Amino acid sequence: MTSISPRKPFLSMVAICLILAYSSKPAFAFGSHKMITALSEATTSSISTSIGMINSDDAVAVPSSFLNPIIASVKPSKTVEIFSLVKEMEAAGEIVTSLCVGEPDFLPPQAVLDATIAAVIAGDTKYTAVTGTADLRNAIAADLKRRKGVEYNPANEIVVGNGAKQCVYQGVLATCGKGDKVLVPAPYWPSYPEMVSLCGATSVIVETKADDGYLVTPEVLRSSLEENPEIKLIILCNPSNPTGGVYQLEKLQALANVLKDFPKVLVLADEIYERLVYEGDCPAFASVDGMFSRTMTVNGFSKAYAMTGMRLGYVAAPQPLARAITTIQSQLTSCAGSLSQAAGVAALTLVTDEELDANVEIMREKRDYVLDELSKIPGVSISMPPNGAFYVLPDVSAYFDGDDTKLCLELLKAKKMAIVPGSSFGAPGTIRLSYATSIEELGIAMTKLKEFLADNA
Ligand code: PMP
């Protein structure tokens, strides 16, 4: 039996009225959304020039004025787009080899899973404080103090959010708006410039070189700040997604020395990959002399603990900044999920360093395998072996006339293999591969890539 939704005829009538109102030609139609779209196609050519219409397959056309103009300056996430395409292909029964998303293939540690189940059984399903449960904030503060030597007051300097992504956005929104500029080193995580645009601010993209380990040098930082006095915030991704570059203490100190001459500039240190470093360590930018008061430290549970779907991250920052972020979060999401927060406490208090370090060793093997395989493909080069996170960014500009997006789309079509074009990371002519999947899957991926590039040499 078919049921009739009372909303559809109503929406259709609204759409018809809109089209009639805007059209100079008389038009008349009854029925489904599809009919409205067909009608609007016939009539919108004249309308679109005067009021601007937006349409997509199988959707009702609406005037572009319906949308916030800021949307025109924001691109959707390519990684998420390709990942969604992969999920659709998989739902249709196709087997896709995906190295596109930054998600460890292993499960969260057992203690995390147990704590989640225990929280369900205890009925721990209510809203928490906006900034997160006291248990989790205490655990975060203790972890930052023990491993990074930075002391945050758990009562008012830590805000737990629904993933590090939301924490980065709220950090930018709390500090930047129209007229402000944000320095984003390239290659960059694609969400940074889009988040900056969403806040009404402008990104200043600063290229880094493979020879410098894809790190911003103090000289480039100084000249960028001198040329752009509107820069209010620097986003420092350490270790970097997508390059795997890691700023170690000396490099951070050199940047901090420059920043001492620019006292109004803040830093958002996205340290979500800090547990995944292969050589040396990754100090918190907030721990560098003089930088605590101007740093927002973002971290989360997705990468080190493989808790991607639990959507749990945090920002730690001096109280006035944390308070502003709390205000934003109180109006956007109220708080992170209570079950995820219980899981987060277990992650920080029950999972040992040894357990996490063992995962780093597994990642190192995968990294070395992928680097070795890529080095055997003619025309593919890696200028800097990644020292952190779980991505490689090989140069493939010898193929498809340097059109990395075309390469990725053709690869998906021909071999059912998903990777992300480097141009969405501000690195045209490259591709980004995540090696956080199983070694078997990496083997299949490397074979597919080799065959595909040989066919398209
Ligand atoms: N920052 C960077 C650099 C990332 O790569 C990611 C995830 N890909 C995030 C933040 C967001 O992580 P989360 O899952 O905690 O939102």
UniProtKB/TrEMBL annotation:
GO molecular function, one term: glutamate-prephenate aminotransferase activity
Domain of life of the source: Eukaryota
GO biological process: amino acid metabolic process
All residue ranges annotated as the Aminotransferase class I/classII large domain in the record: 95-448
One Pfam family recorded for the sequence: Aminotran_1_2
Position of the signal peptide: 1-29
Cofactor(s) the record lists: pyridoxal 5'-phosphate
Record keywords, A-Z: Aminotransferase, Pyridoxal phosphate, Signal, Transferase
Residues forming coiled coils: none
SUPFAM superfamilies xrefs: PLP-dependent transferases
UniProt family annotation: Belongs to the class-I pyridoxal-phosphate-dependent aminotransferase family.
Protein name: Aspartate-prephenate aminotransferase
Gene source species: Fragilariopsis cylindrus CCMP1102
